[in-house]
Amino acid sequence: MKTSEEIKKLVKEKYSEIALQSKETNETSCCGSGCCSDETYNIMNDEYADLKGYNPEADLGLGCGLPTQFAKIRKGDTVVDLGSGAGNDCFIAREETGEKGKVIGVDFTEAMIEKARANAEKLGYRNIEFISGEIEKLPLSSDFADVIVSNCVLNLVPDKEKAFNEIYRVLKPGGHFSISDIVLKGELPEKIREAGTMYAGCISGALQKEEYLRLIKEKAFRNITVQKEKAVIIPNDILLKYLSGEEIDSYKESGNGIYSITVYGEK
Q1: Which of 40, 26, 56 is nearest to 155 (CA)?
Q2: φ, ψ of residue 230 in degrees (nearest 5)
Q3: Fewest 10 Å CB contacts: which of 169, 194, 203, 253?
């Protein structure tokens, strides 16, 4: 079992590597691993191209949902994106909140922050800011945000309870979040859970769906709603890196599964 610091180090190293590559490179070269299409980063993401504010240079194909599509962002809102990467969801949120609003992207990978800032500079946006910070200890004041979004990131956070505590603290009273993440129904094979690259792909760090929703409910959020849910199918060429053919057949027959959900809640 890796410690929290070991997990953070692994995630930071992997996503620093991804930040230096294009979406196309990530999808065709396995994030630089030199193998076939057998990494997990690109098997869960939804299509952003039809959303207003979408910028292809900010899309690294790392998400598992479209939280900004469901986030009920209003003109003038202050929006915070947790794990903002190259800025993809921030730019879409900025389209929703307008020039009078403000968007803050928080990421703990410096290479991602630099990429996001460069993208914002190219677009000439002045009401978007990208800052360094950890989700378990956000560098933001209490009652700060109208809306918090996050896309397939909380599974990378070792202490998810602290993460939801921080989300509650930073939201204004009456504010809300829309978060896309990976959850499980039934148990994953232990070999997948222990694989570091699978963790960085948001799968082995996933909680059971019931436990994930319980964490949210315990923080006194209200009107909790699963806005979208879809199954995530891992191709066999990925599974074969960790399981035998017989183990794959047993896993698929078990009825257990991996799901992307987008969850909404209010403070």
Answers
A1: 40
A2: -145, 150
A3: 253
pLDDT single digits (tens) 153-186: 998 888 999 999 999 999 999 999 999 999 999 9
* Domain range for 195: 4-266
Q: Are 200 and 182 in contact (CB under 8 A)?
A: no
Query: Which pLDDT belongs to residue 38?
Result: 44
> In this model, does residue 32 exceed pLDDT 60?
no
Ramachandran region, residue 174 (left: φ > 0; alpha: ψ -120 to 50; beta: rest)? left
pTM attached to this predicted model: 0.84
In this structure, are residues 89 and 67 in contact, taking their beta carbons and an 8 Å threshold?
yes
CATH number of the domain that 43 lies in? 3.40.50.150
Written as one string, the DSSP assignment of 83-143 is T-TTSHHHHHHHHHH-TTSEEEEEES-HHHHHHHHHHHHHHT-SSEEEEE-BTTB-SS-TT
